[in-house]
Design a protein that fits this description.
single chain, alpha+beta, Alpha-Beta Plaits, 2 domains, 8-stranded mixed beta sheet, 3-stranded antiparallel beta sheet, 8 helices
Length: 358
């Protein structure tokens, strides 16, 4: 394991020197890439330090145990600690998703279930906003199309982290949210108290850097402006501030109308478009490379569900990991830590097993 770790420690030290050079920060995109890699390797450096310290303690205890039986009694606990730190380091050395430290563009869309599905989509949006608040992330609604009863037909959110370490990266946590979420409850539109099932889809995209990763040529874009719809107010329904951008080569279309100015809506739409184009390129590359990258569900078919929210039983169930708990009210208030941890653990186990068999 030392042979595997050594070059990573050298890379971390070199990146630390690079980050200390003021010239690096003249190139914002390069500085972000270097910072992300430095943060990712930081977790490995810390784990290696704990493992090395634990191994040294075991070796010292074995030597001292030859002269003092008290050290022999401590040896099993020290060996257990060394084994635990070795396992932690081994898991960190398994190849990770290179996007884990990135911020995300998160899209929620109502699916089957009509107005009830839109209300549930609104619940999901609020859940993610509360999760961001709990974790100290910055979240903003880039664009949203409201339903008649106050839900969302669709909404796009940007969620940005604190820039700490990849273990706390936004995409590392939220990438498991991509898929179809099913709800079972009595809708507000139901007069006879019958439980209905509906669904909403979630798509999680790692946010692309503006310049170096996704080259969006102006000639490839068709930009249309139109009058915003929705509740009245200043600059709403009175000016052509809403923007629709069509990426001609791919056919992707992004619309934004939440901001007051046309320029702001254009910038928000471009952020979403860059993220979608980056995800599209990654998906195409994965398909060429025999599908190594796991695809997210892009339809809103109830049969493709990843999770069920059962209101009568206050139950949350994740169908990928078997996780089940009866604290749905807390989950919808943003307390997703246990749910996300079950997904992260299952993903880590799968990567570790794949690495051991390769």
């Amino acid at each position: 394991m030392r042979d595997v770790v050594a070059p990573l420690l050298e890379e971390h030290a070199a990146l630390e020197q690079q980050l200390a050079d003021p010239a690096l920060h003249a190139d914002a995109a390069l500085a972000r890439r270097v910072g992300r890699r430095y943060a990712e390797l930081g977790a490995v450096v810390r784990a290696e330090g704990l493992w090395r310290s634990a191994v040294e303690d075991v070796e010292a205890a074995r030597v001292l145990a030859q002269e003092d039986a008290a050290f022999a009694e401590e040896l099993p606990a020290l060996v257990e600690r060394a084994d635990a730190t070795a396992e932690r380091l081994r898991r960190l050395l398994v190849p990770r998703d290179p996007d884990d430290a990135r911020d995300v563009i998160l899209e929620v869309k109502a699916g089957e279930g009509g107005e009830e599905s839109a209300l549930f989509a609104g619940d999901l949006v609020r859940m993610y906003l509360r999760l961001a608040e709990r974790r100290g992330w910055r979240a903003e609604v880039l664009d949203a199309a409201s339903s008649d009863l106050g839900g969302y037909k669709e909404a796009s959110l940007a969620v940005r982290g604190r820039g700490a370490e990849p273990a706390e990266g936004v995409y590392a946590a939220l990438k498991f949210e991509g898929g179809v979420h099913r709800v079972q409850r009595v809708p507000v539109t139901e007069s006879q108290g019958r439980i209905h099932t509906s669904a909403a889809g979630v798509l999680v995209l790692p946010e692309a850097d503006e310049v170096d990763e996704v080259d969006v040529a102006p000639q490839d874009l068709r930009v249309d402006v139109y009058r915003s719809s929705g509740p009245g107010g200043q600059s709403v329904n009175t000016t052509d501030s809403a923007v629709r951008i069509t990426h001609l080569p791919s056919g992707l279309v992004v619309s934004c109308q939440n901001e007051k100015s046309q320029l702001q809506n254009r910038e928000q739409a471009l952020r979403i478009l860059r993220a979608r184009l980056r995800a599209l390129a990654a998906q195409e590359a994965a398909e060429v490379a025999s599908g190594a990258r796991r695809a997210q569900v892009r339809t809103v078919d109830r049969s493709e569900r990843i999770r069920t929210y059962n209101f009568p039983e206050n139950r949350i169930s994740d169908h990928r990991t078997g996780y089940k708990a009866y604290n749905l009210d807390a989950v919808l208030d943003g307390d997703l830590d246990a749910v996300l941890a079950s997904c992260a653990r299952a993903d880590e186990d799968a990567r570790l097993a794949a690495a051991e068999t390769s």
